[in-house]
Amino acid sequence: MVQTLKKSWTTFKTIFTGMGVTMRHLLQPSVTLRYPEERDELPSGARSKLFVHIDDCIGCKLCERACPVNCIAIETVQATKDVDLGKTSTGNPKRFWITTFNIDMSKCMYCDMCVPPCPTECISMVPEYEYSEYDRNNLLFQFSELSADKVTEVKEKAEKEQEEKQRKKKEAARKKKAQKADQTSKAKQKNSEG
Amino acid sequence: MALLIFATLPLLLIVGYALFAIWLERKVSAHIQDRLGPMRVGGWHGWAQTIADMLKLIQKEDIIPTNASRFLFKSAPFVLFAASYAAFSVIPFSSAYIGSSINIGVFYLLAVTSLLTLSVIMGAWASNNKWSLLGGMRTAAQMVSYEVPTIMSVLSVLVVAGSLNLMTISEMQTGNDILGFLPNWLIFQNPFLIVAFIIFFISIVAESHRVPFDLPESESELVAGFQTEYSGMRWGIFMLAEYADMLLLSLLGAVLFFGGWASPFGSYLSGPVWGFIWFMLKGLLFVFVMMWMRWTLPRYRVDQLMEICWTILIPVSFINFVLIALWEMTF
Amino acid sequence: MAPVTSPQPAAIENRTMTINMGPQHPSTHGVLRLEVTVDGEVVTKVKPDIGYLHRCFEKYAESLGDYAKVVPYTDRIDYVSALHQEMGYVIAVEKLLELEVPERVEYMRVILAELQRIASHLLGIGTFGLDLGAFTPFLYCFIERENILRILEKVSGARLLYNYLCVGGLMRDIPTDFTSDTWEFVTSFRPKIKELNDLLTTNSIFIDRTANIGVLPAEVALNYSASGPMLRGSGVSWDLRKNDPYSIYDRFEFNVPVGQGEMGTVGDCWDRYIVRVREMEESLKIIEQALDQMPGEGDVKEAVPRRIRSKEGEVYVRTETPRGELGYYIISEKSGPYRIKARTPSFVNLSILPAISKGALVADLVAIVGSIDIVLGGVDR
Ligand code: SF4
Ligand code: SF4
């Protein structure tokens, strides 16, 4: 009996303590941000979207290699001798045409592994988080700025140069061979003469 | 025609109140939890949110499980609503308006609210869902048990008041005579009625299944209890009936203990219109306290719920009843 | 006159009912499915059915072939305490490669780990309350957790899956206002614990629901190799930070709270709960000491190797996460990891559920599952 009374008393007491706490909160201002009208400021390093300064990219593919989920796809074409692609803002010379630089943000897990390896600091996370799409294809971000024509052009050029190189190499090799053959035949002659 | 208007007045009141109460519940819960709650629909603090929700619910597809008992499943929400609506007819909203001033008002009200149990079991059993069934079983046990302390505490009031007519009970509570300033409300007329009120309040919280006694629909255990399979407007009617039930029991408490439509300032600010306002304010105060409790407390377990009822509330209410009767005989 | 025979009652068939709790049940903390056999409301048998969240962590880790790339995957094992998962893994790899880590990094790791422990316990406590029907404490816990997440976001850039620790150091420099932010949090958080106690811990309905429920005796806990608050709740003082210190935990003073059966029996749900609450206070103590002692200067990437050159060997490293003992077993080859096995506390702790929930009511089962504080990512990996 006494115990029941005691128990009831503590029950009432703790219930009222709890209700006191909630009443205090009822009178306090709330912490809600009314999202589209009010926005929280993200800290400067927030990881929410990848961005590439394509002008600064040297096509080293380090970021592609660092990514655990393979969501970066880079294709490069060696620049031909006659064009100078200039330098990046960090002073590294650019030697490649970046024909493809695709980041599939629907695969990306925002792990930030691709950012530190970049030698020119051109790939980075930007605090932008409102880019939902209805179609997941729209989440494939293409950073390469070359037009399709340009791509074929540089490809052809590069191929030509490559061929030229090959040919030159071959020619050089042939010449060398011929020379060698020449020499050996001469030497033979000498030998036979001697 | 006039009769029809007379009869539908409570309906309008219930629907309007339910919309308001759901909005209020959201607001109270939100602010208790340091949130804001609905803020957009309708402008000022999202007042039209519940109206929009109701419109949405009406448009929704009416899903009936294949293996459900169709007739019972369909009719359960309406039985529930009809029961609480019918009970409103004996509530004296103001000195000038009461649906039906019958002599056995309290008895009628308690009898009609028992139908609630029936409809909940109907819905639960007809859903053919295990969670619903468990919820229904809990409800049956809970509501039947808690009716005993409710009735005992109501009886204690009746001993003091000496009438079963709710209008008469309200009328006798007008004026400010106790200790010269306190209103003549029954709760001040007999010290043991305070205990009776506490028991009554606990029991009505249990009867309208609110936290800490919301076992029939305890969402973290039974998904949604007896409402699990309901959707669309049928679910909406359950919701409506639940809030109506809450108001009904709160108003009953206001009549029985806090003077019904009687003004707290004697004849000042009295009259039919003020009476209605006072009455609703008293009812809404209880509703608010129930909400406040809901957003503070965890819930009891089903056996503890029964234990509280049978080992504490019922014996205490019996003893209290005897004491009240003795008090009335001596003074 | 024929004798009156009472009608023979038909034999009452005592049937049990099987109910599926989950994978979409509101209180199974994710996608856990419990096959519950009930007799009325009394649970006679529980069978956890797991695997809905299996993400092949171990297979991935083997096939990535690079120790650095595994770190973001470890985050996802137990996403509520991601930093602890990283920390265990990173320490294991450092042990394998015999790397020395700078002081500043060690302190930073400890501070972050303890912040994460508080955040994780807040979630565990909040959802436990939610399971028992108390909605509001859950949101209060979330407000506090948000403060921690803000600090972590400022540090690492992410809110949940940080990928902040890397083999040999940290991914980014420590922001300048980190110390002041953390101090601010520590001072503002103490009163909140008291408020939580008022609202939930001492609430008699809460005590009624948790005391003497799901009692796990110390012996059973040890036999099932439980760990973390689950084991300490049963009164066994075993905390790897004390008993087998890793990182620099041996430099701090803190207590290991254990369940004492204050409200009921030792090892009941309330004990497991209170251990978590008290551990938050201990974590605050550790954070304060670490903030005081942390060297102000230093390069956090000093010891980070440019490329990790794998070595042959085997290591096993265990650390104390908010849920218990997390172990990483790494077999390494010259070319990279051959096998990385994660021993997650959630999985082991969940295996005790059938043993302690027999004879409980359905409502108790919910409380017991809540008190184990599992994270399904950790159970399924
Ligand atoms: S953030 Fe991670 S997943 Fe995304 S592209 Fe970079 S490395 Fe790949
Ligand atoms: S690491 Fe940087 S420079 Fe290299 S390919 Fe990637 S973005 Fe370009």
Beta-strand residue percentage of chain A: 5-15%
| Largest binding interface between chains | B-C, 30 and 30 residues
What's the rounded overall pLDDT mean of chain B? Answer: 81
SS element count, helices of chain B: 13
How far is the N terminus from the C terminus of chain A?
A: 134 Å
CATH class of the domain at 50-147 in chain A: Alpha Beta
Under CATH, the topology of the domain at 50-147 in chain A can be stated as Alpha-Beta Plaits
- How many DSSP-defined strands of chain B? 2
Strand proportion of chain B, as a percent range, falls in under 5%
- Unreliable runs of chain A: none
Overall pLDDT score of chain A: 80
Helix content of chain A: 25-40%
Task: Tell me the radius of gyration of chain A.
Answer: 34 Å
Bound molecules: iron/sulfur cluster
Shape by Cα distribution of chain A: elongated
What characterizes the major β-sheet of chain A?
3 strands, antiparallel
Number of helices of chain A: 3
The helix-and-strand class of chain A reads: alpha+beta
Q: What does this entry look like structurally?
A:
The complex is a heterotrimer of chains A (194), B (331) and C (381). By secondary structure, chain A is an alpha+beta fold. Helices cover 40% and strands 14% of the residues of chain A. Chain A has a domain at 50-147: Alpha-Beta Plaits. Helices cover 67% and strands 2% of the residues of chain B. Chain B has a two-stranded antiparallel sheet. The longest helix of chain B is centred in the middle third of the chain and has 32 residues, at 130-161. By secondary structure, chain C is α+β, with helices and mostly antiparallel strands. Chain C is built from 15 helices and eight strands. The A-B interface holds A 4, 8, 15, 18-19, 21-23, 25-26, 28, 30-32, 34 and B 28, 30-36, 39, 292-293, 295-297, 311-312. The site of one iron/sulfur cluster (SF4) has 14 residues of chain A, from loops.
